[in-house]
Fold ABC-2 type transport system ATP-binding protein.
Amino acid sequence: MENPIIQLDGLTKIYGKVKAVDNLHLRINKGEIFGLLGPNGAGKTTTILMMLGLSDPDAGQATVCGINATRNPIAVKRKVGYMPDNAGFYDNLTALENLLYIGRLNGIAEQDIKARAQETMQLVGLSDALHKKTSAYSRGMKQRLGLADLLIRDPEVMILDEPTLGIDPSGIRDFLELIHHLSRQQGLTVLLSSHHLHHVQQICDRVGIFVEGRLLMQGDIDTLSGELFGKESFEVAVTVREEIPREGRLIAALQGMNSVVGVQVNGQTMDITCSTDITPELVRFFVQQGLNITGVQRKAYGLDEIYQRFFENNPKKVSA
Ligand SMILES: Nc1ncnc2c1ncn2[C@@H]1O[C@H](COP(=O)(O)OP(=O)(O)OP(=O)(O)O)[C@@H](O)[C@H]1O
């Protein structure tokens, strides 16, 4: 059900001759995790700054939590936590001291601050490192502390600019799971920008592909995949013990099956492209043919393929 907490209507920002953001319309629902994807210079940061009321649009408007961000930036800042890609802390202070400082700056009552800071550190999995100076924190720990910095202010929306940048691969998954968990547990709306498609894919409910200031596609992964791959949405690789002839009765029968779009033979593996997921029917077919299946793999198109296909279809956008 539609329940937009972020509404961008015709949002436009022009720098000289560059339309950094060009007539952007976007709705993000309460509790949703939305991924803003796009190459460098696409206009992601400019959009975020306008949503926070830190940059004035040349046309259109950004409404966040029902507040016009341009007219009332202070009210928006109370509802929205923003983590830039270079969030910094006072290195000579401990993590707890940093959070207490942020809590005070944000007007949290003195008698509540310590308990709130400790509770928030627990939420982000840093309870054991409360008294460590942030100079000794790894990049992954700093990003968790960055989340704590937002959460202590009890936001309704979190905007995270390239949150996984610089975190080692094993830490990225945990960090994204944490964002997902927090969003679901607290009903938090999350907008995150990223270049890392397969990371984003793990947790985003919907994504938008943003190029040269324009949102060119938006939707969940299945919808985007359907739009770009159409009839070739699924690929099933079936491996059998026997060598498969490249032509003949078997291939013709497969090609005649409903929703099969293409068949390719590679030794003992057949790659079958189809418009619907007919994996069970394919398995049954192979067994009926007396073949010994040793492996079945269904490949659904992910964001990497979606992105690649998008730019194949729109070569002009590659230069962006
Ligand atoms: N203050 C500014 N003055 C002039 N041009 C700017 C300014 N800020 C951004 N731009 C231009 O606007 C366009 C969009 O930039 P923006 O930083 O929003 O992109 P981005 O998608 O966030 O990219 P990145 O991932 O590199 O940060 C770029 O062409 C950039 O050069």
Notes: Residues 15, 18, 20, 38, 40-46 surround adenosine-5'-triphosphate (CB under 6 Å).
